[in-house]
Amino acid sequence: MIYDRNNIFARILRGEIPCKKVYEDQYALAFHDIDPKTPTHILVIPKGPFVSFADFSAQATENEIVGFIRAAGLVARQAGLDDSGYRLLANHGPDSHQEVPHFHIHICGGRPLGPLLA
Ligand code: AMP
Question: Domain 8-109 sits in which CATH superfamily?
Answer without folding.
Answer: HIT-like (3.30.428.10)
